């Protein structure tokens, strides 16, 4: 007697049933999309690809976060807009910020939620709510304000997760290498004749894949990351990376980032001590750097083609048109002094199509304190400053002494730099604050490990000693 063929589902084990069901569902949806038309099929395939990438990001969150950080640091929105038109700029930025939000959500789900009550992102949420209650700036819609809220708050989002030491190490390692990788990729495009790696603006400036000002911001974060690792390990490759990033920063021609980054490095080497960095080595580095200054001064006339030496030799000031921009922001802030005009109002004070914006090439405030006065008023600005103070103070408490002092120097320089540049809303803020979150998380994990070892009873102690101590 011949046997009847077995049903298909009889060949599937209990553990394989969910996977097979999902596969059949995907296949059925693909047939439905193909029947609907090629556009629907392409959209469905795009969703499948996005789902696969999301699954990879979830399973390898440290690698995915480091890859996202590199993508943000390369500012591909500028590269693509230069090559294919300005229509690429906003979509690429939105995609980068969207990926950051997804990774933040994954980090919270994977590692757990952290109670970060002093996080500056919460102040931006309060400023957004206050703006809606008070009334937004004329011409600023709720959609634009909400988009600005996401862009302003997202850089601090990783601190709402209990990040793992592996995640922190991956982010710090990538932060140190972003400028070098961006310059290397820019050199390839330049060699191929696709996009120049240098640009002309009051002299020659290194732009890499983006803009010199943005590259300078990434160099600052890289300098700080190299300095932290140099103090932790004292390795020669950390010093070599620090010098390479400092050289890239010089070639960008950005004066303020170079001044603040140099101040943090010099003050750290002069006054912050650590076992891995002997005093004789630190002072040798300082004296070596000081010995280069006379040579640079003598060569300054021959290096005028570089933007930094050009503006220094010509004593150029107000290259960003700040004196023309600030009066408009001051008038807007005075019109609503206490609560401001809502998050995003700083982008609406000067219309992008105005004669001033076309003449200067920007409509941003170039002063974060002034921009916060427009968006949050005196109360919002004061709340944001206090938030930064308690956020940095609280997170640096658990760091080792050298790292605690360096990170506090970093944020003091950041506070000074905010008076003349847009450093809260630029892409470089995503890199800087992801790096800061990584340093804070690694320090917290190491402090918890130290406390655990300190509280763990000694193996040499009598068996009843720990029990007696627990009863007491």
Write structural notes for this entry.
The protein is 70% helix and 1% strand. It contains 19 helices and two strands. The protein is globular and about 75 Å long. The model is unreliable at 458-472 (pLDDT under 50).
How far do the termini sit from each other?
Answer: 79 Å
- The SSE string, one letter per element, is HHHHHHHHEEHHHHHHHHHHH
> What spatial form do the alpha-carbon principal axes imply?
globular
Strand order of the largest sheet: 1-2
Could you say which structural class the secondary elements and strand pairing correspond to?
mainly alpha
How many β-strand runs?
2
Oligomeric composition of the shown chains: single chain
- pLDDT < 50 runs, ≥5 residues: 458-472
SS strand fraction: under 5%
Radius of gyration over C-alpha positions, nearest whole angstrom: 26 Å
The whole-number mean of residue pLDDT values reads 85
Summed up, the helix count is: 19
Residue share in helix: 55-70%
The biggest sheet, with number of strands, parallel, antiparallel or mixed sense and barrel status, is:
2 strands, antiparallel
Short description:
The chain is mostly helical. The protein is built from 19 helices and two strands.
């Amino acid at each position: 007697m011949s046997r009847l063929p077995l049903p298909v589902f009889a060949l599937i084990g209990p553990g394989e049933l969910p996977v097979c069901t999902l596969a059949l569902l995907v296949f059925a949806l693909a047939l439905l999309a193909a029947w609907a038309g090629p556009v629907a099929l392409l959209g469905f395939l795009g969703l499948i690809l996005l789902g696969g990438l999301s699954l990879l990001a979830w399973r390898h969150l440290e690698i995915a976060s480091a890859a996202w950080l590199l993508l943000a640091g390369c500012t591909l929105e500028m590269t693509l807009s230069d090559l294919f038109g300005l229509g690429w700029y906003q979509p690429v930025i939105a995609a980068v910020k969207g990926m950051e939000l997804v990774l933040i959500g994954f980090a919270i789900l994977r590692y757990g939620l952290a109670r970060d009550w002093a996080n500056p992102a919460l102040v931006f949420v309060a400023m957004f709510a206050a703006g809606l209650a008070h009334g937004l700036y004329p011409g600023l819609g709720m959609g634009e304000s909400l988009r600005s809220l996401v862009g302003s708050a997202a850089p601090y989002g990783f601190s709402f997760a209990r990040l793992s030491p592996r995640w922190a190490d991956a982010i710090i390692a990538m932060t140190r290498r972003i400028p070098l990788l961006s310059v290397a990729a820019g050199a390839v495009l330049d060699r191929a004749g696709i996009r120049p790696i240098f640009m002309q603006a009051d002299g020659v400036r290194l732009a890499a894949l983006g803009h010199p000002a943005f590259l300078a911001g990434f160099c600052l974060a890289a300098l700080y990351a190299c300095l932290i690792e140099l103090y932790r390990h004292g390795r020669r490759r950390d010093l070599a990376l620090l010098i390479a990033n400092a050289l890239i920063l010089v070639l960008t021609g950005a004066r303020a980032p170079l001044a603040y980054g140099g101040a943090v490095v010099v003050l750290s080497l002069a006054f912050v001590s650590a076992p891995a960095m002997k005093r004789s080595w630190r002072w040798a580095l300082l004296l070596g750097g000081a010995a280069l200054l006379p040579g640079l001064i003598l060569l300054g006339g021959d290096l005028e083609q570089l933007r930094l030496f050009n503006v220094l030799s010509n004593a150029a000031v107000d290259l960003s048109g700040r004196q023309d921009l600030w009066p408009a922001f001051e008038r807007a802030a005075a019109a609503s002094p206490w609560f401001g005009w809502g998050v995003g109002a700083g982008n609406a004070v000067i219309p992008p199509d105005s004669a001033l914006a076309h003449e200067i090439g920007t409509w941003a405030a170039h002063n974060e304190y002034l921009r916060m006065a427009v968006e949050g008023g005196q109360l919002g600005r004061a709340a944001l400053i206090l938030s930064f103070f308690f956020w940095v103070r609280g997170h640096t408490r658990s760091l080792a002494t050298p790292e605690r002092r360096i990170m506090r120097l970093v944020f003091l320089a950041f506070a000074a730099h905010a008076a003349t540049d847009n450093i809260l809303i630029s892409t470089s803020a995503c890199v800087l604050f992801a790096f800061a979150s990584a340093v804070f998380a690694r320090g917290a994990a190491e402090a918890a490990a130290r406390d655990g070892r300190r509280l763990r009873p000694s193996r040499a102690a009598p068996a009843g000693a720990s029990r007696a101590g627990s009863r007491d």
